[in-house]
Design a protein that fits this description.
The complex is a heterodimer of chains A (297) and B (373). Chain A is of the alpha/beta class. Chain A is built from 10 helices and 14 strands. In chain A, α3 packs parallel to α4. In chain B, strands 5, 6, 7, 8, 9 and 10 form a 6-stranded antiparallel β-sheet that branches. Classes of the chains: A alpha/beta (297), B alpha+beta (373).
Chain lengths: 297, 373
């Protein structure tokens, strides 16, 4: 089993005719993802990687059932494309675009919350369950990174995820599902919202979160553990311990987070909740072992 | 992108928020007459970093002579600074805090206000959170007048000042929207002895992802700290210069901050960070050219790319070395899509590619301390 997507999930690809859309649709299909249709305005009637293309999601829905949609859409056009999916009632949306305007993301986030939809991203590689299915742009064929196993992974980063996941695999574990919530200040979906899915997933024995300085997503994870809403072992790797202090965002940033957001604070609250925190990627596997998580091989 | 105080205040003025009578003075104008502002007046360094008061970058002066000497002192303290802002001194009866920023968990904007503003506002927020008034704004509907009224009524101001406060809240929200802001802040907002609200300071941060539609305050070469920083910005390459030994060409903010941590664990220091990933992965020659303009002892390249293919990056590095003939050692740790091909490309060019980040960091630190490859 996996969370968010599996081989039965019927996936639409928005922006399928672009070079990225077409390239990654092929890889998504190669992994086993059930890509049923694509959408690019003005391109209805074409076929990309064997997938029929429609002008709009509403047109596609006349011919297909859609459970989830994957966006390869430029940042400026994201709000419109996400809204098109939400308007069609789709509740699982992944958008990889890097550079979505902040106010657009705020409106997307607010609407996703109202409608109980998951909008994963932007600025992410997406979601993958190795050897099962993916929505996004992962080099799933690199076995030393994307090996199937029992560790759920959530991340705010792209290349760092490959780095940490390679270390998880090197330690004898594999990955159940990996959710990239993305590196933007306002992601469409947050770490804590996926914990109940990992909690319920029998394949997932433990979760690794790859966080960084800023924001409060890691603090929200600690809170879920303290409230016993997530009870499996959890290891965090946090980058930015020695980062030079950035220029401060006026006083408002500090007032609104009440002193949260620093790596030090995140370490304190996570450890207080019973999670382990790694100071370097190679420590993640060791800490999983210390928490008694049995290896996958 | 952060705006200078004088830029933020020009925006405030356009929206009808009162600011003190002022004059912008550049380095070569420090003998200019300030009679139109009058004495006493305040000299304020126009720098983007905070804590100006504590760093001696704000001075209250009583006459022309001290104005000249204080301006000189402040310009000397900040050699790259272009302007000081001279403002009339204002007799105040109260300092108020007001800002609009982003509440990431809800995706809403949040307006924060307090009747006790000033430099200790963060302490107040921790010790007396109840003294901070908050109002969340759903961007889909915008700020509703009742929200602005509700905030202002909690601030214990006179009837007339409350009306002014409501207008200021509405105007700040309009600025937040018009400029795609991450933050709009007035701290302090003066309540003058004649019961007027005047913006004592001003901060506006514009979202970098929105700069394509926010071109008014576009930066010029003079706004950058170095030639390398300016060239990187022209190429759209994120770049930060420090003063250490190791030049970093890394892909992705997360991996970069991790490599930065690992270098410090090993006792090394960082000369610069250059973003070699994302859309920049085909720009190896330009990226290395910029890195070579920064004094450093070794260049460390760490990537783990997906769309940014390892073989393309490796070939770019080989081309860059051939073209630029770098005067310092290069350590590579290039992984991800097509990583085997990448290793072969680097090897056949006579390089010794590493495959483990911690090992590469150790090697770079050793070389920076004068070790050999």
């Amino acid at each position: 089993m996996s969370i968010f997507i599996d081989r039965t999930t019927r996936v639409c690809v928005q922006g399928i005719t672009g070079s990225e859309g077409s390239f990654w649709t092929e890889h998504m299909k190669n992994l086993g993802t059930n890509v049923v249709c694509g959408v690019t305005p003005g391109k209805e009637g074409q076929t990309i990687q064997g997938v029929p293309v429609y002008h709009s999601i509403k047109n596609a829905l006349k011919h297909h059932a859609i459970d989830a949609t994957m966006l390869f859409v430029p940042p400026k056009l994201n709000k419109d494309a996400v809204f098109e999916a939400l308007d069609a009632g789709i509740k699982k949306i992944v958008t990889i675009a890097d550079g979505i305007p902040l106010h657009d993301m705020m409106i997307i986030r607010t609407r996703a919350l109202d409608e109980h939809a998951f909008v994963v991203g932007g600025n992410t590689s997406g979601v993958i369950s190795p050897h099962e299915a993916m929505m996004g742009s992962f080099p799933h064929w690199i076995e030393r990174v994307y090996k199937k196993g029992s560790i759920g992974v959530m991340t705010r980063s792209g290349s760092l995820t490959n780095e940490v996941t390679a270390m998880i695999v090197k330690s004898g574990y594999g990955v159940s599902s990996l959710i990239g919530v993305g590196g933007d200040p306002v992601p469409g979906a947050r770490f804590a919202e996926f914990l109940p899915l990992f909690e319920a997933d029998p394949q997932t024995k433990a979760v690794v979160i790859i966080g960084e300085l800023g924001g409060t997503m890691e603090e929200e994870v600690a809170d879920m553990i303290l409230k016993h809403k997530f009870t499996k072992p959890l290891v965090a790797f946090l980058g930015g311990r020695t980062a030079p202090k950035g220029q401060k965002m006026g006083h408002a940033g500090a007032i609104i987070t009440g002193g949260k957001g620093s790596v030090q604070h995140k370490i304190e609250v996570l450890e207080h909740a019973g999670a382990k925190v790694a100071d370097r990627p190679s420590r993640v596997g060791i800490l999983l072992e210390q928490l008694g998580v049995s290896k996958d091989e | 992108m952060k705006l200078y105080e004088f830029q933020a205040k020009s925006v405030f003025q356009e929206f009808g928020i009162v600011t003190p009578k002022s004059k912008l003075v550049s380095k070569d104008q420090i003998d200019v007459s300030l009679d139109d502002i009058g004495y006493p007046c305040v000299i304020k360094a126009q720098v983007l970093s905070g804590g100006r008061g504590k760093r001696g970058l704000i001075a209250l002066v009583k006459d022309e002579k001290s104005a000249g000497s204080e301006m000189k002192r402040i310009f000397d303290a900040e050699p790259s600074m272009k302007y000081v802002l001279i403002e009339e001194a204002i007799s105040i009866s109260q300092e108020i805090y007001i800002s609009i920023t982003v509440d990431a968990p809800s995706g809403q904007a949040v307006i924060l206000a307090s009747e006790s503003g000033g430099v200790e506002i963060e302490t107040l927020a921790v010790e007396h959170p109840e003294k901070i008034i908050k109002e969340h704004i759903d961007l889909r509907y915008g700020l509703l007048p009742h929200q602005a009224r509700h905030m202002a009524y909690q601030m214990h101001l006179s009837t007339q000042t409350t009306k002014e406060m409501i207008q200021i809240i509405i105007k700040l929200y309009d600025i937040f929207i018009k400029y795609d802001a991450e933050l709009v802040e007035i701290n302090p907002l003066f309540l003058t002895k004649s019961d007027q609200l005047v913006a004592g300071d001003g901060k506006i941060m514009i979202d970098d992802n929105s700069l394509f539609r926010q071109t008014r305050f576009a930066q010029t070469e003079a706004d950058y700290s170095s030639e390398a920083a300016y060239e990187a910005s022209l190429e759209g390459i994120p770049f930060i210069q420090f003063d250490g030994d190791i030049g970093l060409m890394c892909a992705g903010a997360g991996l970069t901050t991790t490599v930065y941590d690992l270098i410090h664990y090993e006792g090394g220091t960082v000369a610069n960070y250059l973003e070699f990933g994302g859309p920049n992965y085909k720009k190896a020659v330009k990226a290395m050219e910029i890195c070579l303009k920064v004094p450093s002892k070794v260049i460390l390249i760490v990537t783990f790319g997906t769309i940014a293919r390892a073989d393309v990056m490796a070939q770019g590095i080989v081309d860059a070395i051939e073209k630029l003939n770098p005067d310092r050692p290069i350590v590579t740790c290039i992984r991800g899509t097509n990583e085997i091909e990448a290793v072969n490309i680097l090897k056949s060019a006579g390089l010794t590619p590493l495959f483990d980040t911690e090992e590469a960091v150790k090697m770079a630190c050793k070389l920076a301390k004068g070790g050999k490859l």
